[in-house]
Amino acid sequence: MDSDAGSTCSRSSSPDLVVDDSAGSFFSNKMFQRYCEENRAESETRQGSTERCGGKTKNRSEPNKDEVQDLRLKVNSRERKRMHDLNQAMDGLREVMPYAHGPSVRKLSKISTLLLARNYILMLSSSLEEMKKLVGDVYGSSAAAQSRSATHSAITSTAAHLPLHPLAQSLHSLVGTTSALQHHSSSPPSAPTPHSPPAASFLSFHTPVQGLLKDPLHLASSYRHFPGMPCPCTLCQPLPATTSTLHSLAMNK
DNA sequence: TAGGCCATCTGGTCCT
DNA sequence: AGGACCAGATGGCCTA
């Protein structure tokens, strides 16, 4: 509809707001012209009715054309700002997501960003639970109760050796479908920022492999998987229904 | 060229 | 009343 306003933003998710420009385009487009015509017709009708009533002009509650235009522009501007803020938040979310960043990498779409974020949170939660379980197995419940700080440090230090959770595969599939990966196993990780996401190597980001989700155990973990034998790790346990649904969603993307 | 993604406008609804 | 939020409509840009 609004081609001029759209061209000014250059498809950035957080374009610079040029209110006057968009307003100009708004004034120039057909919808607004039709809107003005309708508004004029309505005001004329109202005037006729008031004259017919013969009374005083009672248009205090009914704004005139200019007021309606100003109101409309204000509302549009607010909505634009709201959407820009939303996009900024989306960009912030993209920045902390474990996918390849860079100019050569296509930006994640909004829906992909949200799905990826959800998967990422689920994966981290599962990993944390798994690490707690592992530490509990190693040190025993009493030892774990004695030093929770040690537990915490053990969790953080051993996180780098986490088996790849099936949820991570959905990250792979999502990223694989939306962008080319910057990080490979041979390339050094980029310098971490204060809010930098876990390194790609942490998530074992290699070449995206499509269809791995169909067989999560395929590259499941450092656990050894024997045919016909149940795996002891909780990461190999069936995922919640919601997660499975999300997997299919992500795969369909 | 079709489809995906996006920005913007717009009207409705709810809340303060 | 004014603002926030939401969803539908519309049209532009980009990619396969």
TrEMBL record:
GO term, biological process aspect, one: sensory organ development
Record keywords: Iron-sulfur included? no
Q: Which UniProt keywords apply?
A: DNA-binding, Nucleus, Transcription, Transcription regulation
Q: Does the keyword Ion transport apply?
A: no
Per its UniProt record, what CDD domains does this chain match? bHLH_TS_OLIG2_like
One cellular component (GO) term of this entry: nucleus
Please report the stretch or stretches of sequence annotated as the BHLH domain.
70-124
GO MF assignments:
DNA-binding transcription factor activity, RNA polymerase II-specific; E-box binding; protein dimerization activity
Which is one Pfam family of this protein?
Answer: HLH
Q: Where is the composition biased (Polar residues)?
A: 1-15
Outline the segment boundaries, as ranges, of region: Disordered.
1-22, 38-67, 178-200
Q: Where are the membrane-spanning stretches?
A: none
> Which InterPro entries does the record associate with it?
bHLH_dom, bHLH_transcription_factors, HLH_DNA-bd_sf
Listed name of the protein? Oligodendrocyte transcription factor 3-like
Q: What is the lineage of its organism?
A: Eukaryota, Metazoa, Chordata, Craniata, Vertebrata
